[in-house]
Structure formats: structure tokens, C-alpha cells
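hey can u check if this looks right to u? its 352 residues, i copy pasted from the old doc so theres a chance i mangled smth
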Amino acid sequence: MHLEEDKPLAPFTTFGIGGPASWYVKATSEDEVAEAVEWAGERRLPLFVLGGGSNLLISDAGFSGLVLHIVLRGITVSEDADHRIYHAAAGEDWDAFVQRTVDENCAGIECLAGIPGTVGGTPVQNVGAYGQEVAPSIAGVRAYDTRTKSFTEFIAADCAFAYRRSRFNTSDRGRFILTRVSYRLTPNGPPTLRYADLHRTFPAGSTPSLAQVAAEVRRIRQFKGMLIVDGDPDCRSAGSFFKNPIVTAEQCARIVSPSGKEPPRFPAGSGQGNPSLIKIPAAWLIEQAGFSKGFALGPAAVSSRHTLALVNHGGATAADILALANHIATAVRERFGILLEREPVLVGFEHA
């Protein structure tokens, strides 16, 4: 285990923002994960687990503790009845992993192509996009329990998956460090074509391949500024900054735009405990509250291509991003009575 002091963290994030870590270590094995946790515990240091850096905002002061960077690599494959199970180490690049499964004609995560980050982050927030979530394809998760100081394994039913949630970011936040995720995929299975943008490209009756769907998802993501492309100013973001609100039918009925339009609405999906709950696009609420694409507050701005993404136009601080986010959230709450929930993880903030 090689420890580094005062390690700059901004280069590890898609925002390109954040101060240094007091201590930093890169874990390439499960033994190093356990060793790092023990080292921090002996010194009573706060511990933060860093993956791909695509879903977090690090404070300008940095992190006064140990940042444990998970870079475990390796993918093995096994067969289970009609499925193929991919056992992927937590540090594997997510988009590259998706592309491998698509190239091998295994269905289940093709609509999650182009999402930045690493494998280990996907179960934590039940990553989803374009009509898919990882939860239905996850067979199991291996993790280090910082409380018992031992490795443990979970089946999907133990993970308490819901919309952008799992036990790992709710009831057991900070307890488990994921080291491997297993995905049960379907060889020669059909692609998922639930999302409206995909319907426009692949109308009813068409039979696109998994590779064609994944490529189209990446094209749509790039069009919306949600694909990491070198030199693209809209890419210095954490993707969607706000979650789509889940509301009751009564709440939804009270939401109208200044021009009298009702919001788009979708079923909230499984795991919500109430089948009548409705999901409303946060982007619609933001736009109707007066924030158009490209709206800027100093060097922090709304993406010029997608209202849900906040971007660093160069020189923005974490405080700048939070000021813009709070400005938007306040306007939405005052206009519609809906409290927008942040999607990125905040690191190094005492009160935010």
C-alpha cells in the first residue's frame, strides 16, 4: 500500500473541481482495501472511497482524511442456465465493460452505454438511463464490511434497490466498500427499447442489434452533453445533477407550467412501495422555473445541451456549483412545491 499526502483530487473527477486529500491510496487488490481501512481506523481518520469520479463534487477545501481509490481490475465469466454471468472487479471502466457485453451479444445493460465511471459505482445508486437500470441484471455484489472487517457477498434481493437507491447509499451508507459486481445477462437477448428517443430511431417492428442500440445511446448522450468527450466544455460535469422527483398523483395534478401546461409523467417503477407514484422529469421543472440551457451564474452554468447537467465552464469552484444548484432548487421549490434531490455525492462538505 503506497500512501500519498496532500493529493490533488480535481484531476480524478469529471467536474475537474476539488481540493486535496490529506491522504490518498490506490487499491489494486482486496488486501489493499482491507489494509487501507485498518490504517485509517487506527488513526481515526475519515475515509472516502473514490471510483471513477463521475458522480461527485469535492469541496474546495478537499478531504481531511484518507481517500481510497478503487482500481481493482479483472473480469471472469460463468454460465447459469440461460444466462451468462460477468464477474467484474469494481475498478473496471463501466462503458468498456458494457461494450464487451454488447460485443459478446449479451443483453441487459446495452442502454447504459456511455455512462462514465466504474463498475463499483453502478449498484450503489442503481444506475439507470434510457429505459434500463442495473438492478434487474445484478446477480450479486462482493464488498468489504468496514464494521466487521471482513468480506461479504450479497444477492440482488439483499441490496434494497429502488430508483437511484440501494442499501449502499441509504441504510448502510459508508459501511461497505464494493470490490466486485456480478451481472446476469441474456445471450442473444433482444435490446430494451422503452425510451422515447430510441423509439424514434428504432420504430415498432424494427430489430436493431445490441451494438446498434448501444451506439445510438452514446450518440444521444453526446447530443445532450452527457458523454465524456475531450475538449467538449459541456463534459465538465457530473451528469444529471438532480434526480427526477417521485410524486403522488395528487401532487402531480397541482403542477402546471406558467403557460398552463402539465408536466410529462412516467410510472415511478418498481421498488417504490406504491405503484401509483409518478416520476416527473426534473429537467421540465427546471426549465419551467425559468432556467434555460446555457444559463450561467459566474463560471458555473447549466449545460447548453441538457438542463439537468451543471457544468464547470473553467475556473468554477465547488462553491460556485453549489450556489447555482441551490439557486435552481429554490426556484423549483417556490414555483412547484417540489424539493429537488441532488444526485452527485458531496465530499468534504460539513454542511451542504
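The mean pLDDT is 93.
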